[in-house]
Design brief:
By secondary structure, the protein is α/β, with parallel strands linked by helices. The chain has ten helices and eight strands.
């Protein structure tokens, strides 16, 4: 695989970066990423990854565009209300760049369907909004030995981590949250609110971490959880230890 003259111009600002260069851009062109969720985190992540030249994007979401989404999900417009998010996203990305093979998957992932829906990819970026999906995706990523970038937001806070739980020295997402479950009275952004700009920040950051994992620039972020407080603002990083008793990646 080589880059065409048009691609060399399109991705020139990546190629001149010593940490990425032509070799790194070729890795992005050859890469396949599954994005879980086309919502607040998924929208900016999808845009950033497509613009970066990822070869194949598989976006998995079963939701429709609602009026309340438009405050933070900038892939969508008023005229899209009622349409499937993955279908709208496919149209937008086709107009952004013809280089990306975009695969819309209109479905919801659980433990039984994760392997079939995610398929063969080089990395998973999870921006879903519930523990059931997140843990199903995490457990699959450990079994498949595929890096997982996971991001979450709430009100004015965002968090982001990269996990490679199959490694003996690295935790999985389940090591971080345990056997978390979605309580019937669990707070949602509909009840608690969320700053729209925060989703753009964390979603774009998740895309950057996916690019880091694929090209290898900078230090390895595996097992580190970054927590950003938008009110202060302040950023702190926490090292997540591997849980030997974890059902996802340990001996539990």
């Amino acid at each position: 695989m080589s880059l065409s003259d048009e691609q060399l111009e399109r991705y020139a600002r990546h190629i001149v970066l010593r940490e990425i260069g032509g070799a790194g851009q070729m890795k992005l062109r050859a890469a396949s990423i599954a994005v879980i969720g086309a919502g607040g985190i998924g929208c900016p992540a999808i845009q950033s990854l497509a613009a970066a030249g990822i070869g194949r994007l598989r976006v998995i979401d079963d939701d429709h565009v609602a009026l309340s989404n438009l405050q933070r999900q900038l892939l969508f417009e008023t005229a899209d209300i009622g349409r499937a998010k993955v279908e709208v996203a496919a149209e937008r990305i086709a107009r952004l760049t013809p280089d990306v093979a975009f695969e819309p998957v209109r479905a919801r992932i659980d433990a039984a369907t994760a392997e079939r829906l995610i398929g063969e990819v080089d990395l998973v970026l999870d921006g879903s909004d519930n523990f059931a999906t997140r843990l199903a995706v995490s457990d699959w990523s450990v079994r498949a030995q595929v890096p997982l970038v996971t991001a979450a937001i709430g009100q004015f806070q965002g968090q982001l981590g990269t996990f490679r739980g199959w490694r003996a020295d690295a935790p999985c997402y389940r090591c971080f949250v345990g056997d978390a479950f979605d309580a019937e009275d669990c707070d949602t952004c509909a009840e608690q609110g969320v700053l729209g700009a925060m989703t753009g920040l964390i979603g774009s950051w998740a895309a950057m971490e996916a690019i880091r994992a694929l090209t290898g620039f900078g230090p390895d972020a595996t097992g580190k959880l970054h927590v950003f407080d938008g009110i202060t603002p302040r950023l702190r990083t926490i090292a997540i230890p591997k849980d030997p008793a974890c059902r996802g990646c340990g001996s539990g």
